Amino acid sequence: MTAGTANHETMLQCFEWYLPDDHGLWNWIAAQAQDLAAAGFTMTWLPPAYKGQAGDSDVGYGVYDMYDLGEFDAKGSVPTKYGSRGDYLAAIRALRAHGLRVIADIVFNHRMGADGKERVAAHVVDVDDRTVSDSTVIERTLDTVYEFPERGGAYSTFRWNWRDFTGTDYTANDGSIGIMRFAGKQWSGNVSQERGNFDYIMGDDVDVNEPEVAKELTDWGIWYTETTGVDGFRLDAVKSIDATFFAPWLNTMRQYGNHPDFAVGEYWSGDVDELVGYLNDCGHCMTLFDVALHFAFEHVSQEPQAYDLRELAAHTLTVDEPEYACAFVDNHDTQPGQALESWVQPWFKPLAYAYILLRDSPYPCVFFGDWYGMPHDLFPPLALLHEMVWIRAHLLGGRVVPQGGDTAHSLCWVVRGGHPVCVVLNTGDAAVARPIQEDFLAAHTVVDICHPDAAVRIDASGRCVLHCPPRACSIYIDAGDYELMRERSVDMQ
Fold first, then answer.
1. Rounded to an integer, what distance in angstroms lies between the CA atom of residue 297 and that of residue 292?
2. Which stretches of 89-219 are assigned E, i.e. beta strand?
């Protein structure tokens, strides 16, 4: 028997915040390439690969030198946290050799770890409303000079100074922290209006509207795309970067290397109107992570009795802009201990993953910590996740048919195709029994992979009742497909 293939995309985020500083991720992920492809993944999102201000202990978001992929002895180390330049390029080749597209993490918003200081005229800005600033210009000695002495002009001779930035933060003599906007500079207009204007996040804020800066970022992108051969980009903190910058940048990148054809932006907001607004402002040149759906998952996991599952995807990109929605459950920023911590409770995670993997999300993303576990937080790999990814890759058809009888605490849908998939979600305190009738299911025997002890025989008219325990999900597939999944050594947990 041969399983069906609907060519569904599935992305794996290949890192979490607390990986060891052992330079080992690139080599390790290369060794996983064959298994990840067999599991059903089609895309792999790798963390930022360039040198950060903290050297080989930097997760990648404190960007220092985007040309140093672990090649130069800067910031206390040659390799990055994840390995050397050679290791990185080899990992990309290994992943692509097994049919996995590689998505590179791009951090344009800020630079940190400057090599030198200079006197800069600036206005002090209200941290709670960045549109308000002191009219008085003051001068401070600031860390805004980037000369990259260890690289010595290799790959680029561009040197950064205050004119290439919009502003920075500072610590006053009394220990207070503030933000400054450089004299003659303005915050970008096509950004989030959080705190009046959210152009500034941290460090030295890159001015993408400065022509020389835009050219340098484009030149770097061409070099990086040709050097690495990546297939797409995850764009960090786009809510703080002028939306008009990305369409021309991405169009240029698509002319080089492997012609990257995928981009997903991180716009951290639970307000779907903001997300849709940014898609409009950038000309729909990218997809966005569906942060609104993530917050819905977190909410229902915390207060299941107070949340109506029938409204789960209301006011999300998954509903409002489905072709541009990249659904996820958790990521490195939401995990415990991080500034954006909003962890989906473990009991609900199988239900959330069933929702993004076994319906019609075009680009669902699986978190490293859920796939492999997180020793730092004592979380094991998530049960049933391997099976769901395999089902998505090998069985899932194309048409989702919601079943009648949904309630505030119970959803049921069927995915039509040559290999039936039926899903029940139950956030209630009692088991549910969901009757269904679908002609194409007639005479099938289906097995709940979550509770496989009892098979369900569907009658000749396509009628049956699907059961689901309290606060759980049930995923029914054809009995023959279930045996095939077991034969192919899916990690049954």
1. 9
2. 101-106, 110-111, 116-126, 129-133, 138-145, 165-171, 177-182, 204-206
Beta bridge partners of 326: 289
Q: Assess contact for 45 and 60: CB atoms under 8 A.
A: no
- The one-letter amino acid at 388: M
Backbone angles phi, psi at 273, to 5 degrees: -65, -35
Name the pTM for this structure. 0.95
Residue 2 has pLDDT above 80, yes or no: no
What CA–CA distances, in Å, run from 18 to 70, 343, 368, 375, 485?
A: 19, 15, 11, 9, 32
- Considering the chain, what is the average pLDDT of its residues? 94
The residue type at 401:
V
Q: Closest by alpha carbon to 367, among 274, 276, 289, 270?
A: 289
Give the Cα separation of 199 and 190 in Å (integer). 9
For residue 77, give the DSSP letter: B
Q: For residue 199, report the phi and psi dihedrals to the nearest 5 degrees.
A: -55, -45
Residue 104: both structure tokens together: 């590179």
Note every long-range contact of 69-73, with CB atoms under 8 Å and residues 24 or more positions apart, other chains counting: 69/227, 69/228, 70/23, 72/148, 72/150, 72/151, 72/154, 73/150
Helices (H), 395-437: none
User: Residue 163 to residues 29, 130, 214: CA-CA distances in angstroms?
Assistant: 39, 19, 13
Residues 6+ apart with CB under 8 A from 173: none
Q: Dihedral through CA 468, CA 306, CA 411, CA 475, nearest 10? A: -40
The amino acid occupying position 237 is A
- For the chain, how are helix, strand and coil distributed in percent, rounded to 5? 30, 25, 45
* Three-point CA angle 365, 367, 372, nearest 5°: 135
pLDDT in tens, 417-464: 889 999 999 999 999 999 999 999 998 999 999 999 889 999 999 999
d(CA 455, CA 480): 11
Give the model's pLDDT for residue 177: 81
Average pLDDT over residues 85-104: 98
pLDDT at 4 over 70: no
**CA torsion, ordered 468, 471, 477, 483, to nearest 10 deg:** -100
Q: Do residues 442 and 458 make contact, with C-beta atoms less than 8 angstroms apart?
A: yes
Q: Which residues are catalytic?
A: 236, 266
Closest to 7 in 3D by CA, of 420, 475, 365, 396: 396
**H or E element: which one contains 273?**
helix 272-281
Ordered DSSP codes for 366-383: EEHHHHH-BGGGTBPPPT
